[in-house]
Amino acid sequence: APPVGASNNDSGNPSSNMTKKKRENLGVALEIDGLEKKLSQCRRDLEVVNSRLCGVELSSEARRSLEKEKSSLMNKASNYEKELKLLRQENRKNMLLSVAIFLLLTVIYAYWAL
């Protein structure tokens, strides 16, 4: 099975006229997408290992190797899930902050327009 990639902390966002906060929010969303893909690949790899373990007769060395790989994949999946949970919380917080700022600006605009 192909190795699952390392954490993607790519900060090479294009320097356009987007605000820093908007780029940061976009970065969180992209990071979530990347982690979901890695988690999905990790789970597929885990299914392959499980099917090999349940399939044909294996030597004790091959079985140990597969059990070790299974354990490693389970740890990796667990770490991805924890990281995803934190990123989703951050994304939710950023969204609520954006809504609050929008509402504040709407109230200020309505006040000045009247």
TrEMBL record:
It is a single-pass membrane protein. Keywords: Coiled coil, Membrane, Transmembrane, Transmembrane helix. It is found in: Membrane. It comes from the Eukaryota. Pfam families: CCDC-167. Residues 32-90 form a coiled coil. The chain crosses the membrane at residues 95-112. Residues 1-18 have a biased composition (Polar residues). Residues 1-24 are annotated as: Disordered. GO terms for cellular component: membrane. PANTHER family: COILED-COIL DOMAIN-CONTAINING PROTEIN 167. This is Coiled-coil domain-containing protein 167. It comes from Bos mutus.
